[in-house]
Amino acid sequence: MSSTTAGPRLRDVALRAGVSTGTVSNVLNHPQKVSESTISRVRDAIDELGFVRDANASALAAGRSRNVGLVAIDLSNSFFVDVARGAQQVARSAGLNLLVAGSEDDHAIQASYVDYFDEARAAGLLLAPMQDSEEQLRRFVEHRRPVVLLNYDSAATDRCCVVVDNEQVGYLTARHLIARGRRRILFASGDTRFQPVQLRRAGVHRAVEESAGVELIEAPSEGVDWEAGATVVRERLAAHPLDFDAVLGVTDLLAAGAIAVLQDNDVAVPGRVDVIGSDHNNAAWGGAVSLSTAEMRGLEIGETAMRLLLEEANDPAHRHRRVVLEPRLLLRASSPAPS
Amino acid sequence: MSSTTAGPRLRDVALRAGVSTGTVSNVLNHPQKVSESTISRVRDAIDELGFVRDANASALAAGRSRNVGLVAIDLSNSFFVDVARGAQQVARSAGLNLLVAGSEDDHAIQASYVDYFDEARAAGLLLAPMQDSEEQLRRFVEHRRPVVLLNYDSAATDRCCVVVDNEQVGYLTARHLIARGRRRILFASGDTRFQPVQLRRAGVHRAVEESAGVELIEAPSEGVDWEAGATVVRERLAAHPLDFDAVLGVTDLLAAGAIAVLQDNDVAVPGRVDVIGSDHNNAAWGGAVSLSTAEMRGLEIGETAMRLLLEEANDPAHRHRRVVLEPRLLLRASSPAPS
DNA sequence: CTGAAAGCGCTTACAG
DNA sequence: CTGAAAGCGCTTACAG
Q1: CA–CA separation, B266 and B136 (whole Å)
Q2: Which nucleotides of C are covered by protein (CB under 7 A)?
Q3: Is the Cβ–Cβ distance between A223 and A180 less than 8 Å?
Q4: Would you list the DSSP string of B212-227?
Q5: Under an 8 A CB cutoff, do B88 and A104 touch?
Q6: What is the pLDDT of residues A280-300, one digit of tens each?
Q7: Which one of A56, A82, A113, A306 would you mutate to disrupt binding with B, by most B Cβ within 10 Å of its Cβ?
Q8: How far apart are CA A247 and CA A232, in angstroms?
Q9: Residue in B59, B60, B282 nearest the CB of A285
Q10: Could you give the 3-state DSSP secondary structure of residue A3?
Q11: Closest-CA residue in chain A for B59?
Q12: Confidence of residue B77 (pLDDT cuts 50, 70, 90)
């Protein structure tokens, strides 16, 4: 499959520097145990030979690796890219590499990456899981590898999780539409595969129930993508005369699809119908009207999750916990601030 | 730093199945060498014990790993996410894991990931390099590890590269504006750090030189981000009365920043000024007017690059080559198709 | 501060 | 088709 290793070994470095292999290893891993002069002799030998330590051998001998995995549902959702950036910054400052894998919304791919990071003896795993991932995680956790869940609130007490308050996302977006004076909200509520979606839906219901005179027209769909949002609006318009004054998409993609169909039907956004999304996904932002949505605080989620992971890996006194970040609205053209 | 391995070893599996460790290894790696009945006995033992092979030990003993690295300048540019998806699909069908790392537009980070994949004896590397990355790559290539460059046209003959014809991107976007009847193009031409940007600029110049009566107002900037695009337009408007009828951003972010400032100044887009970007980056798509741009064919770039990498790793007759994909325009609201 | 030696958990010829 | 043994390239006590 691949070429074999060709370069110099650690023992070549040792020979050249006139020391033992243990000393070279100490220069690499515990320089404080080695004298200045030896260090510089070894460093010179490393440079002269172009030595590159074999990370596999190192991890095997040391019983640990310097890698942390991040497995995200879908890298084309920019939320997860924000998470990755935050996690990477913290990981690097701790001397760890962050390796990212996208599970492409597919359980089998997610499972194979979780297993991969398990096989690779990763120092830990950040996982934004799909529904029903307990099974896949069990083995990883049993192997005493730290896991932090992202954007998924788990009942499990054997790991940390970092979430945005998705119920509040639903509540805030619906409240905003109501504050804008909207009274008949077409709710593109997606499907039940994703926990964040379920929670946002609960928040939307709470906001509507609080407000007399507001009606929610719930329109579920098979997926939560652009096409599903377009279909929801298209079918509603076909079945009824225009009978709603707002669309709330439980994802940004749903909302973007809705905007496109509204515009095709010459319905002014936001003049006649407000539209708001929910998950700050810039993959949904190519539409003719810029989309209002909720900030998901991905960067902070990534940073926080990596800190928890490091704590779990290093601090015997670590206690698992659940960190909840509050969402904020991000208002743009499709549903601006109430006047 | 991390917990040590706790789970069962391959020899535990062998004991339980009543075979030697070599046979267990063969079941894992070369099942065709083992009888059906032995395979199922070993598989049962693996399941019962919850055995997970140590990938580090495996890679060390076998002299190769099943990982391919992808190091991209910036994962928040959706082009690279497309590339990753394409590469992952091909990698998985070949039994390899794709591990993604973002270099955050930082030479040091890029170097550390290239070194990491070298240390990890990755089966190969896909790299979308920043300028001046030869130095960093040299060692990797010398170690006989396959590298394929993405979106970077290298003079080096010791590796493959897959690019979109960025000169043609510049040519097509400029031609489009001219076909729209635009005659004074403010060209947000960015800086010279990135080869794709340089090439697009050359294409823009070619298109303008071909067309009599078209004037290009070149406005370079320090970066190629949203803020730089906003600044370019703001400064032009401050120095002159509105004297251009189009803005061409050498990146989508530059174009998006331009749109925002134009709108702030009540300049209609595309009524008064057309705007077009160049790199299909949905991080730039949150603006009030949807952005016309060029398709960069990221998915195909990723697929093609991974295929070349596999060929280089497996086929002794592999010859390095350069694959060029042709760009296409993606026309949206900020500069629609000519009428 | 330094060196000799054992061992990490696999894979791979090789002999049977 | 199966087993015994050597070895992959490091790290880590341990003794000096």
Answers
A1: 48
A2: 1-13
A3: no
A4: TT-EEEEEE-S-SSHH
A5: yes
A6: 998 888 777 889 999 999 999
A7: A56
A8: 10
A9: B282
A10: coil
A11: A56
A12: confident
